[in-house]
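Quick log. Single chain, no ligands specified.
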Amino acid sequence: MVSLSSPFTRCCCYYYSYYNYNKFYNRSTSTLPLHILSHHNNHDKPSHHQITRREIVLRSIEMAVLGAIFKFSGKKPDYLGVQKNTPSLSLCPATNNCISTSENGSDLIHYAPPWNYNPEGGRRKKTVSREDAMEELLQVIKSSKPDKYTPRIVEKRDDYVHVEYESPILGIVDDVEFWFPPGNKPIVEYRSASRLGNFDFDVNRKRIKALRLELEKKGWASEDSI
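-> predicted structure:
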């Protein structure tokens, strides 16, 4: 069974959104790959056979062709980075495909607690510096691929990291940011958001959780568990 949070499912959502858009406005879909058109023509006929692995592979290839044509990577938002007026990461849009430590704790859809890399009572025998914590974070980012998304570090400063996570199908890109605020507190803020769509099947929240679990092995902790 294909997971609702899988890249394939997200790609299907983008594809069917495009198909329904053309159908509503009576636009031609003749520019789409022939295999995709044939699948839609067959949808009108009842089918009782189970989808084979070969069909899944073929449809995945078709999705990749769509991604190359319509560039589902999306445009990089111009509001990323540490905000100047009130130093913090950006808030989330109204869509359900973003989480941020900058949100109000009462917003259960968008809020996520920051991380602490020197938690009191944690498993560390001695505290680490901000520089060492940054290296631990980079190691986890480079060595893990949550939900099979490929990470690419596109910007790195002493206190900030911007990572683009690209899906294996269609090349959907999510932007993930990490920020070490100034001060003595060993805190890391973060924001994870999809560039396209209105919902993400909790992909962003699951990604952050997967990264946190790896960091916990190094002694980190979530602020809500301290």
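The two ends are 37 Å apart (CA to CA).
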